Every structure is written in C-alpha cells, then in structure tokens.
C-alpha cells in the first residue's frame, strides 16, 4: 500500500484527529499553567471540558498529571477522567460497529 492509498482511508484521518486533539489538550493545559504562574489571563475551564468532550481528554489528563495543573479542582479530578472513559467508550463503540459487527 502506497502512502497515497494510505491517506485515502478514514482510519488515518481518525488517528490524526485523535493525535491532534490530545496534543491540543496537553498544550492548553501547559499554557494555562504558564499563564497562572505569570499572572496572565487564564483559559476558561469550560474550554478544557469542550476539548475533552471532543476527544482530547487523554491529553488534558496527561497535562494534569505531568504538569500538575488543576489537580485540586473536583470538577477536573472527576470530570476529565470521566470524559476520558467516555472517549474510550466511543472509540470502542466505533470499532465494534464498523469492524466487528
């Protein structure tokens, strides 16, 4: 399979989307930590949840753990892992419906 044929498959685009949205989730977590340390305008908490809901919960969760940011907020310590589990569930449902059924 050539690289051109590979990029015709939807799985590649789904994988790239997951990679992009999780990288974005990690970056916004790091950026918000930087903004907090430098006393700048912060990123709205609802934006973290929107990114997580769109599939970026793993990136936000990694950012929380690695950078140690937002780890004392109950809405984040419960909400982001819940959205991560939902993201995994949606991915498994997609695999089941389109590949295993």
Automatic annotation (TrEMBL):
<keyword id="KW-1133">Transmembrane helix</keyword>
<dbReference type="InterPro" id="IPR012156">
    <property type="entry name" value="Cold_shock_CspA"/>
</dbReference>
<dbReference type="InterPro" id="IPR010718">
    <property type="entry name" value="DUF1294"/>
</dbReference>
<feature type="transmembrane region" description="Helical">
    <location>
        <begin position="43"/>
        <end position="64"/>
    </location>
</feature>
<dbReference type="Pfam" id="PF06961">
    <property type="entry name" value="DUF1294"/>
</dbReference>
<keyword id="KW-0812">Transmembrane</keyword>
<dbReference type="GO" id="GO:0003676">
    <property type="term" value="F:nucleic acid binding"/>
</dbReference>
<feature type="transmembrane region" description="Helical">
    <location>
        <begin position="12"/>
        <end position="31"/>
    </location>
</feature>
<keyword id="KW-0472">Membrane</keyword>
<protein>
    <recommendedName>
        <fullName>DUF1294 domain-containing protein</fullName>
    </recommendedName>
</protein>
<feature type="transmembrane region" description="Helical">
    <location>
        <begin position="76"/>
        <end position="99"/>
    </location>
</feature>
